[in-house]
Write a structure and sequence with these properties.
It is built from 7 helices and 8 strands, in the order ββαβαβαβααβαβαβ. The protein has one domain: TIM Barrel, CATH 3.20.20. By secondary structure, it is an alpha/beta fold. Helix 3 runs parallel beside helix 5. The structure holds iron/sulfur cluster (SF4). The site of iron/sulfur cluster (SF4) has 13 residues, from loops.
Amino acid sequence: MRIGGLQKFSLIDYPGKVSCVIFTQGCNFRCCYCHNPELVVAEKFCPTIPEKEVFEFLRSRQKYLQGVVVSGGEATIHVDLVSFLNRIKQLGYLIKIDTNGSLPNQLKSLIQLKLVNYIAMDIKAPLVRYQKLAGQSFDVQNIKESIDLIINSGIKHQFRTTIIKDLFLDDDLCQIRQLIQGAGSYCLQKVRLDEKILDKSLLSQQQFSDDEFNNLNQRFQIREFQSTGCGRANE
Ligand code: SF4
């Protein structure tokens, strides 16, 4: 597994659990608002952390941490994801995966093999505008397939959308809510406009005020089961 980062402690990334976060390196999307370009753009990659080091850490924290969040980049692009998660499971951890949902077959394997206890998927846009927001051409039906898989999996899950004032209309959010009908949980998150953002041209965009954002989130969120937050902002 290409591991680009390890956050050793988190109270917000796995709802209700004390966790650590493993960041995999590489992503098949290029979302304009991405806040982890060092995990997405090859020229910005840092040296990877050896798996051995990560597993030594996980073994040393078995008593203190309940969960491991596998985030990215995009974890499902890695062919050794199943064996990697299997090794984490064998240590007794709960596993949450953060995904962009572009590879439903990988997700299906993880669900069938009971390797994940929580799935968080970003919904970038209504399907008709998905490729534009994701910055890549791909089969957008994969997104619908992943959504349906997750909703019908019986696994705790959360969908979330990063909103940018000039790029999102109410109608977009209505369409997204249609797309995820039956979901257990959904929330919005504000784009973070600072120098780390992948597409610097967004820095000139207007931000939602707190009131505007809270109002939108109240209208569109789904709170079926209790969660402590929306997880990592912009992944
Ligand atoms: S926001 Fe997520 S899916 Fe989009 S480029 Fe960044 S890591 Fe990839």
